[in-house]
Amino acid sequence: MKADKLLRKFSGRTPGILGQEDFFRFAVLLPLVEVDNEAHVLFEVRANHLRRQPGEVCFPGGKLDESDPDEKYGAIRETMEELGLEESDITDVIPLDYMVSAFGTIIYPFAGVIANPAKISPNPDEVGDIFTVPLSFFKDTEPDTHKINFQVQPEDGFPFDLIVGGENYNWQARQMDEYFYHYEGQVIWGLTARILTHFLKLIGIRP
Questions:
Q1: What is the pLDDT of residue 5?
Q2: What is the pLDDT of residues 23-39, one digit of tens each?
Q3: What are the residues facing 30 on neighbouring strands?
Q4: How many other C-beta atoms are found inside a 10 Å radius of the C-beta of residue 70?
Q5: Domain count, the chain
Q6: Where is each Nudix hydrolase domain found (predicted)?
Q7: Residue 75 lies in a domain
Q8: First to last CA, the chain
Q9: How many CA atoms lie within 13 A of 152 on its CB side?
């Protein structure tokens, strides 16, 4: 087959993420609510009986189902399930930047408004508690920032003889900021703090 004919088969192709079929895909929602005429961010505390990350602060969200038509729907569906809401209760949903983690996951964050927070009824199978934080708190409060280092650790039997430099090969290491927000005894950190910080920068609260 000629080269030009080969490439014409892919005319108009939309690029994706290389190897994404092997990644776990999650969608989360950063929910905004109004409390005493002020915008707040709503957080969940994961139920203590959960196997993964019990008791940690998070946003509503979870793994995408094959039946989800898109990532936005997945974020809304998970929020409905975890907070006992209907789809009409969640409005103005917008996409934030998605994340590809070093641990084989793609996370699709969204921000949206819960129009009637009085209707919230947390699902005890997943949610231990909920709380809100006024946006003004994040405007006035800097997070604690610490570094995490990611380093390459080849497995036993790795074929160093096949690469230039062998066992002295200069692997690229990566350093990442980890944010910690403290609010009334709760610690917001990890992926939740990363999404929150991204959102705060988008709306101009954080530089």
A1: 85
A2: 999 999 999 999 999 99
A3: 111
A4: 10
A5: 1
A6: 23-156
A7: yes
A8: 53
A9: 9
Cα dihedral sign for 198, 203, 206, 207? positive
- pLDDT confidence of residue 206: 80
Question: Quick one: which H or E segment has residue 110?
Answer: strand 105-114
Q: Strands 24-35 and 105-114, how do they pair?
A: parallel
- In the numeric block, which tokens belong to residue 167? 């066992």
Q: How far apart are CA 167 and CA 156, in angstroms?
A: 12
Q: Is residue 4 part of a domain?
A: no
| pLDDT confidence of residue 21 | 86
Residue 7 placed within a domain: no
Q: Give the number of other CB atoms < 10 A from CB of residue 58.
A: 20
Q: Cβ–Cβ contacts within 10 Å for residue 195, how many?
A: 23
Token pair for 178: 């980890």
Q: Which domain holds residue 31?
A: 23-203
Q: What is the CATH number of the domain that holds 133?
A: 3.90.79.10
Residues 6+ apart with CB under 8 A from 149: 173, 174, 175
